[in-house]
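Recap from last week: sequence in, structure out.
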Amino acid sequence: MNTELIEKLNTGQALIGIVGLGYVGLPLALRYLEVGYKVLGMDVDQSKVDMLNSGQSYIRHIPSAPIQKNVQAGNFQATTDFSLARQADALILCVPTPLNKHREPDLSFVISSLEEILPHLRSGQVISLESTTYPGTTDEELRPRIESTGFSVGADIFLVYSPEREDPGNPEYNTRNIPKVCGGSTLACMEAGMALYGRVIDRVVPVSSTRAAEAVKLMENIFRSVNIALVNELKTAFMKMDIDIFEVVRAASTKPFGYMPFYPGPGLGGHCIPIDPFYLTWKAREYDVATRFIELAGEINTSMPYFVVQRAAEVLNEHEKPMKNARILLLGLAYKPGVDDDRESPTYKIMDILNSKGAKSFYNDPYVPVIRPSREYAHFAGQESSPLDGAYDLIILCTGHEEYKVINPEQLKAPVLDTRGFFPELPGKVYRA
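Predicted structure tokens:
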């Protein structure tokens, strides 16, 4: 059974294998190292592995010092050799779960990662999936593949689902103090999962099944998506009434009960909120359930970049300049302030729309000096951050980086379209979108 495994996890003697060393996997690896475990990191990106093995972090808000310390001490190794999975007592999958071009779940990274380690599994290991997905994935996709190799889940291999809750760059909440939800395929699996996270997370929250755990993550991000859509819709209505939505939100936030502030913006960004709700809408169709709130929220949020471009055209027109050939600088490529994470950033969509209308788009971001290759926006790869003092016809504030607080819009040559309520409104100079 799982007695020996739990003993190793509880005493810190277990070797922790983490598959996927990105924004979720790398902080998790560092937390296990901090507590005293040894960690084996696995990733398909050789350049990422090489950087980590040389003691360097490739993520801006994660320091290199603890990586270097643990590499030199022999406590941490990164590798592209998935056969080493046999050495690990625990295998935690932290790989992307994007949407395909039809906005349907793409589990290819999860399935390919699992299939890489399947030939190397041994009895007495716990496998945890942390990637966001639809309810049923762990038991419908992972469990049959594991059992096809001859292992019995709950007796030989212990399978759990524990959704990641990382918030990159958040100084208050980190891997240690964000409560961890965990659900197991069986009771024995749950026991192993609780032991896996018990020494590294301040509070582990058990739920009855992997399906319940999968649903928890979706509910969290659907809640945010729906409420962001609400304030985005209110923004467009209030703007017609000459009311500043940001002033309204700030004032409403003074109510000490029955209200939670959400803020409008140029669209959704990041690895969760633009994607996760569609995992549930896709799965709900299997049960003939209509998820109308979720789909409406998705429509509103995905329309925001188009609204920003419409407002850009109006501001340019007010300054007697056409959209065609207009030079437009977008401030902020990262999806949130203070990080270099540009996944699903709405800035990309705004740039695409502007370019399609004949404008010439540029971006400035102190955290993203050069655009990295991506599946959806490969055509932007290699473009470099442009200076603030260039010759532009319009500047659009998309991400409220702290570094932009030194900007005095009155000293800029071009008008500013502010999508975040970052600058005070100035007639003829700073506009809202």
